[in-house]
Amino acid sequence: MERKKIRNFSIIAHIDHGKSTLADRLLQMTNTVSDRDMEEQLLDNMDLERERGITIKAHPVTMSYKANNDEIYELNLIDTPGHVDFAYEVSRSLAACEGAVLIIDATQGVQAQTVANIDLAMKQGLTIVPVLNKIDLPGTDLAMCYEQLEEILAIPAEEALHCSAKSGEGIPEIIEAIIDRIPCPPEVEEKTLASLIVDSSYDSYRGVVNYVRVFSGEVRAKDQITMFSTGKSYEVKEVGVFTPKMKALDVLSEGSVGYLIANIKDTADSKIGDTITSKMDPVTEALPGFAEVLPMVYSGVYPIDSADFETLRLSMGKLQLNDPSFVYQAESSAALGFGFRCGFLGLLHMEIVQERLRRHYDMDIISTYPSVVYHVYLKDGEMVQVDNPVYLPDPSAIDYIEEPVISANIMIPNDYIGAAMSLIMEKRGLCENTVAVDERHVMLSASLPLHEIVIDFNDRLKSMTKGYGSMNYKPSGYQQAPLVKLEMKVNDDPIDAFASIVHRDAAESRGRKIAERLKAVVPRQMFTIAIQAYVGGNIVARETISAMRKNVTAKCYGGDISRKRKLLEKQKAGKKRMKQIGNVNIPQEAFVQVLKAS
Ligand code: GDP
Ligand code: MG
């Protein structure tokens, strides 16, 4: 396609504002997908994504459209994920575009993630096409949206289009606006190939499928290409576009978006953000790539049945091919057996990975209390990074500990300011600024420890504001805090899987909670069992399980009969599930019960 007829764009929106629905309407309106084949939310092709209404994996789609001026245009839609945990994927997608359609739910108005996404888009110099969606709903408040567009986003209200992605009203106007307002890919002097790897996937027969944006030159099958960062060369096997199925083409030229397959078998050789260039005539400078993202949250993930360990390892490997931001490493625990230490970008990312393991790979897993990466300064002047409480050095060797902090923007209706501020304080945060964004909404800026956000901040904010509050955050460095290691012990032996790093003031209540839960699930034995929560050398909570008398089962477990029976059946299933902590035998199921609740 001729450069001037190409439009590369993304759709950006706060979660649930209608990005996927609009994408589906565009596919339909351009006859990319026939009405008959139209499956609800075609771009979100994973069950999990559909259920949670989020798009995790960006995947470009090429559409062809005859505009009002009778010219045919190529529209490349690059879908972006809407959640804060995936900001890196958003900017990655935006780097391949000249414009973005900004969707705002007209009943809700601008939300925190709308602002975050717009910031990313404006930084990349993209042309924004603002669209107010869901105008079929009775709660539509266009006046509020216009005011917010101007006040918060500095976008003139008259630029806004409106539509109902559900009914299809207003969609043709949006396509015309994409063609009229978003510039075509710029003309470049460079004629040699420079193509950005925007994303990739893995096909077991054909190897790595690179999703690319060609910035200069062109590429076809049989061309010799070189990866700029590794210097490795390959022969191109096939180039093409997603329609949304893969469709091979003769050539991908300047300005276009599509895929490139080159018999690359090792995913490590195809780095997202790298530049693909010509082997014979390489460019001298790489295209601006992407910063590598580092995991911010860690947790142990264990198979409930230790026989599943190898299968779990394989499943994690496959998952990582599709999601390089997820990292894992084998580890073992006395309580849980063999498993993995896993790193995630944030809480949502962690939940999604675990759900995928459970559903797509049918794995029965349990995970430990999440941890962030602490900077531990030792008395000898050294600094060590700790993401696993088990490896926190002895308190006597520690000078001080720093934890990661984030700066958050929280958008809420005025009525909830007081409640939001006390939640921030409860979570050890600091409110820095409050700005009225319109008559009914404010934006709070606050600084908070990442660990508190990871635990339950977002859920609390949502339920407290009846779903109207929204939050967006970015890392803002490290800060010193009185953090301690909370350890749980049975008869003086530590249960490694329950160790956690917590704020000094929260240690006692957390210790007491876990001790109570353990007491309810650890079976009685021939001797008394002391369950103790320790901080440093001090006991902060204690429960006692008295020695067993005659009736073995009657008081074994708290809880209802059916659970008791299930536990007994599980125990019968094999003694291998029993874990020995010191002199105490504890069924793994007991640990699982407590971890699930904590
Ligand atoms: P995304 O998270 O931005 O991808 O949002 P979705 O496209 O998944 O939409 C979220 C919800 O809003 C879904 O239940 C959609 O059916 C609904 N929705 C999207 N657009 C409209 C619209 O124009 N009108 C109405 N009434 N509902 C819509
Ligand atoms: Mg979606």
UniProtKB/TrEMBL annotation:
<keyword id="KW-0547">Nucleotide-binding</keyword>
<dbReference type="InterPro" id="IPR000640">
    <property type="entry name" value="EFG_V-like"/>
</dbReference>
<keyword id="KW-0648">Protein biosynthesis</keyword>
<dbReference type="Pfam" id="PF00009">
    <property type="entry name" value="GTP_EFTU"/>
</dbReference>
<feature type="domain" description="Tr-type G">
    <location>
        <begin position="4"/>
        <end position="187"/>
    </location>
</feature>
<comment type="similarity">
    <text>Belongs to the TRAFAC class translation factor GTPase superfamily. Classic translation factor GTPase family. LepA subfamily.</text>
</comment>
<dbReference type="Pfam" id="PF06421">
    <property type="entry name" value="LepA_C"/>
</dbReference>
<dbReference type="InterPro" id="IPR009000">
    <property type="entry name" value="Transl_B-barrel_sf"/>
</dbReference>
<dbReference type="InterPro" id="IPR035654">
    <property type="entry name" value="LepA_IV"/>
</dbReference>
<keyword id="KW-0472">Membrane</keyword>
<dbReference type="InterPro" id="IPR004161">
    <property type="entry name" value="EFTu-like_2"/>
</dbReference>
<keyword id="KW-0378">Hydrolase</keyword>
<dbReference type="GO" id="GO:0016787">
    <property type="term" value="F:hydrolase activity"/>
</dbReference>
<dbReference type="InterPro" id="IPR035647">
    <property type="entry name" value="EFG_III/V"/>
</dbReference>
<keyword id="KW-0251">Elongation factor</keyword>
<protein>
    <recommendedName>
        <fullName>Elongation factor 4</fullName>
        <ecNumber>3.6.5.n1</ecNumber>
    </recommendedName>
</protein>
<feature type="binding site">
    <location>
        <begin position="16"/>
        <end position="21"/>
    </location>
    <ligand>
        <name>GTP</name>
    </ligand>
</feature>
<keyword id="KW-1003">Cell membrane</keyword>
<feature type="binding site">
    <location>
        <begin position="133"/>
        <end position="136"/>
    </location>
    <ligand>
        <name>GTP</name>
    </ligand>
</feature>
<dbReference type="Pfam" id="PF03144">
    <property type="entry name" value="GTP_EFTU_D2"/>
</dbReference>
<comment type="function">
    <text>Required for accurate and efficient protein synthesis under certain stress conditions. May act as a fidelity factor of the translation reaction, by catalyzing a one-codon backward translocation of tRNAs on improperly translocated ribosomes. Back-translocation proceeds from a post-translocation (POST) complex to a pre-translocation (PRE) complex, thus giving elongation factor G a second chance to translocate the tRNAs correctly. Binds to ribosomes in a GTP-dependent manner.</text>
</comment>
<dbReference type="InterPro" id="IPR000795">
    <property type="entry name" value="T_Tr_GTP-bd_dom"/>
</dbReference>
<dbReference type="InterPro" id="IPR005225">
    <property type="entry name" value="Small_GTP-bd"/>
</dbReference>
<dbReference type="InterPro" id="IPR006297">
    <property type="entry name" value="EF-4"/>
</dbReference>
<dbReference type="InterPro" id="IPR013842">
    <property type="entry name" value="LepA_CTD"/>
</dbReference>
<dbReference type="Pfam" id="PF00679">
    <property type="entry name" value="EFG_C"/>
</dbReference>
<keyword id="KW-0342">GTP-binding</keyword>
<dbReference type="GO" id="GO:0003746">
    <property type="term" value="F:translation elongation factor activity"/>
</dbReference>
<dbReference type="InterPro" id="IPR027417">
    <property type="entry name" value="P-loop_NTPase"/>
</dbReference>
<dbReference type="InterPro" id="IPR038363">
    <property type="entry name" value="LepA_C_sf"/>
</dbReference>
